């Protein structure tokens, strides 16, 4: 009986994985169908014939512009957020000072406030700063929104690096900045990768702020472009699935490359006593 347990577990896991992947596979293959085939055979997996008409319609609806805007906003937010998180995380992990726990709580406390509560005040603030409908406004909001979690991820990983490495470097004349740049950052690559992937996904997929803080077609991000496939006269399923496929692809590729570092970074400090 014991010999059958492991195969049954793997079979169950494969079944669950297949059930999870099947909707994404269906969406991907459906994005290559013609509009007639989508209407007549919506459940058919294999397109007959393969067509790029849905991608052409999605491009006409602003897919290229949305992709470029999302890339600009997400990548810039990652650079700013990870850079600031590295500085703050290192200080909180290594520099002991009074009320450090209060500072940690103050960093994460804004995450407890629902986003809808801040939406109107944020809109008014960006309007007065003349940052509505701009890349800078979105980058600022996404950086502020993702920074607390990024700080916690990086801080947890810094705490797993032995402090003796820095002490030895300081004995040899290395400064605190030198320790951060030459020792901590190279060793903390898994934590930085986890924080970067978290910030990228949060910025790439964000919809509510993007649709509220932008008004022109030139500033729409990818989630907004996907949403606009839903019109008053119906839903263009082909364009919607084509846009969604393009939106999901970068996240899947990034996670595939950074999977091991992402898991290591998220679990850093879990076993620290």
Termini separation:
39 Å
**CATH fold label of the largest domain:** MetI-like fold
Rg result: 23 Å
Mean pLDDT: 86
The string of secondary-structure elements, in order, is HHHHHHHHHHHHEEH
Estimated share of beta-strand residues: under 5%
Task: Please list the strands of the largest sheet in the order they lie side by side.
Answer: 1-2
Shape: globular
CATH class category name of the largest domain: Mainly Alpha
Low-confidence stretches: 269-273
- The helicity comes to over 70%
As for the number of domains, it is 2
CATH superfamily of the largest domain: MetI-like
Class by alpha and beta content: mainly alpha
Number of helices: 13
How many β-strands, per DSSP? 2
Biggest sheet layout: 2 strands, antiparallel
Specify the CATH architecture of the largest domain. Answer: Orthogonal Bundle
Main features:
273 residues; mainly alpha; MetI-like fold; 13 helices; globular
Question: How would you portray this structure in words?
Answer:
By secondary structure, the protein is mainly alpha-helical. It folds into 2 domains: 1-54, no CATH class; 61-266, Orthogonal Bundle (MetI-like fold). Helix content is 74%, strand content 1%. Strands 1-2 form a two-stranded antiparallel sheet. Helix 4 runs antiparallel to helix 10 (189-205), helix 8 (163-171) packs across helix 9 and helix 10 (189-205) packs antiparallel against helix 13. It is globular, with a radius of gyration of 23 Å. The two termini are 39 Å apart.
């Amino acid at each position: 009986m014991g010999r059958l347990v492991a195969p049954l577990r793997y079979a169950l896991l494969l079944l669950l994985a297949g059930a999870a992947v099947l909707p994404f596979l269906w969406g991907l293959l459906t994005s290559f169908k013609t509009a007639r085939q989508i209407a007549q055979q919506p459940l058919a997996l294999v397109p007959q014939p393969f067509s790029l008409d849905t991608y052409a319609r999605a491009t006409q609806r602003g897919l290229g512009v949305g992709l470029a805007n999302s890339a600009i906003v997400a990548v810039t937010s990652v650079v700013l957020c990870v850079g600031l998180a590295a500085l703050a995380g290192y200080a909180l992990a290594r520099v002991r000072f009074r009320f450090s726990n209060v500072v940690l709580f103050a960093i994460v406390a804004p995450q407890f406030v629902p986003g809808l509560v801040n939406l109107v005040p944020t809109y008014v603030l960006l309007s007065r700063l003349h940052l509505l409908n701009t890349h800078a406004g979105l980058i600022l909001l996404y950086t502020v929104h993702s920074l607390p979690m990024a700080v916690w991820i990086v801080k947890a990983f810094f705490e797993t690096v032995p402090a003796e490495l820095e002490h030895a470097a300081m004995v040899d004349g290395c400064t605190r900045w030198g320790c951060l740049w030459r020792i901590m950052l190279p060793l903390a690559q898994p934590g930085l990768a986890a924080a970067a992937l978290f910030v990228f996904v949060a910025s790439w997929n964000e919809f509510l702020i993007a649709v509220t803080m932008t008004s022109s077609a030139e500033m729409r991000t990818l989630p907004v472009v996907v949403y606009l496939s839903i019109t008053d006269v119906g839903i263009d399923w082909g364009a919607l699935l084509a846009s969604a496929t393009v939106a999901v692809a970068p996240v899947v590729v990034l996670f595939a490359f950074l999977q091991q570092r992402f898991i290591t970074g998220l679990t850093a400090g879990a076993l620290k006593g």
